[in-house]
Amino acid sequence: MTGYTADEKLRLQQLRELRRRWLKDQELSPREPLGPPQRVWPMERFWNKFLQDQAPWKNVIYKTYRHSFLAFTHILIPAWIIHYYLKYHVTTKPYAIVERKPRIFPVSLKMSLIFLLLIIFLPLFPPQVIISLKCSFSLLVLVPALYIFSVLFCF
């Protein structure tokens, strides 16, 4: 017997057809390769939509925004940071030695004595007596706060 049998011929024909289809599938269409969709930031999406019609005045606005944003982020903010650091943290000593500045508390000695006396004598009176006194609004706010503070921390 010479040649292929009918089953072998059918099998070879099917393999050739399969190879031909596979090679045809490997050819790219004009819209391929498809990449993943690009994610766009909201401001970029706004400017893309704003500049679609290519109006000259819109280009001027966009260029002004871009340059002012660059100047703000690369010049003004660093200048403010450097100014703040030099003004509040670097002392006027030789070689610019940096040291901590002394603490300054806003309460005077007279006010601290008044608060101390209030904290000491406030728990002696019930809250109803204190509120019934004819006090200014600041005392109405200050006295209950001092009373609570003294009850919590003094006893």
Automatic annotation (TrEMBL):
Keyword Transmembrane helix found: yes
Entry superkingdom: Eukaryota
Transmembrane segments: 67-86, 107-125, 131-154
Compartments in which it is found: Mitochondrion inner membrane
InterPro entries, alphabetized: NADH_DH_b-subcmplx_su6
Protein name (database record): NADH dehydrogenase [ubiquinone] 1 beta subcomplex subunit 6
Organism this protein belongs to: Rousettus aegyptiacus
Keywords, ordered alphabetically: Acetylation, Electron transport, Membrane, Mitochondrion, Mitochondrion inner membrane, Respiratory chain, Transmembrane, Transmembrane helix, Transport, Ubiquinone
Subunit note: Complex I is composed of 45 different subunits.
Similarity field: Belongs to the complex I NDUFB6 subunit family.
GO BP terms in the entry: mitochondrial electron transport, NADH to ubiquinone
